[in-house]
Amino acid sequence: MDPGEDVMHVVAGPVVESADPFDPESRTAELARPGAPSAFLPDPDDPLVPSRSAGLTGWARKVGGVLRRCLAGLVPIGLLAALPMHFFVGRVDDTVVAAPALSDLAGGFGLLLLPLMWVAYFAVSALPLVICLAGTAAVALTEAARGTLPRPGVVWRLVAYRLRPLWVWFAVFGLLTQSLPLLLTADRLGTAVAAPLAVSLGLLSTGVLTFTGLLGSVVLIERGPGPRRATHLSSMAPLAGLVLASLAVTVLPRLADLFLGGPVSTLVAVVTALGWAVAALVTYAHARRAEGPATAVSLYEELSAPEFD
């Protein structure tokens, strides 16, 4: 028997079809590892997760689809977030104005309450974004994976045990973005820097919201180390859409408050916060798809997994 024919009989399967038994360098075919995703498989048509090659248009199509299908489920979340956003969230320097009054009422101990007032402010100011992102993730992933909108009790059970770390992270980053306007003011630095300072602080707020959108999604779905994982995912997918959504949260409510008043500003803030939450979730899903196999079903299963596996 010819040696080449003997090799053909001994080696079976796809190696026979791909390897050349007469190759003087004895090269064989490269076989995919069991369970490893194929880079040549087309992306599945997922209702929430963009394909690996999706650009801003494909990303926007997914965001629009989520908003259209989940609108009825997002309205209660927006109403819940509107309460702290309208009645409790104020400017940090309002606490400085209130300190003398507290000092008179408490016999000189009011100033000792000032740090506690600031802590309370930062905690409450983070609550609307926490509600929007957590509620949106539960509603959107459930709808995309199961085809139905979840009841409020189901939404609560999906995210309740992750609200504390999510709230802590958002309050920490809120401390950065909302304390700087108190320390860096045009009165202290001069009117010449007023415009550049406003632009710089707006860009900082937009960048923080972009990062915390991914960070919040990691905390909710993966339950792992947040900042490092979010930094990694930020390099896996385009961020232009999420940056625009974050910019809308930063700018539009302020413009509405300036020209239309407080109630309209609250409405605009709630709408832009919900849009930011959907944008963050879709961007996170896009990064997970670029990293490996990820679908709305797999992300929903991660979100709904028991707290203690």
Automatic annotation (TrEMBL):
Say which species the protein is native to: Paractinoplanes rishiriensis
Q: Which domain of life is it from?
A: Bacteria
Keywords (A to Z) from UniProt:
Membrane, Transmembrane, Transmembrane helix
Which residues are listed as membrane-spanning? 70-89, 109-141, 166-186, 198-221, 233-252, 264-285
Q: What is this protein called?
A: Uncharacterized protein
Q: Does the keyword Membrane apply?
A: yes
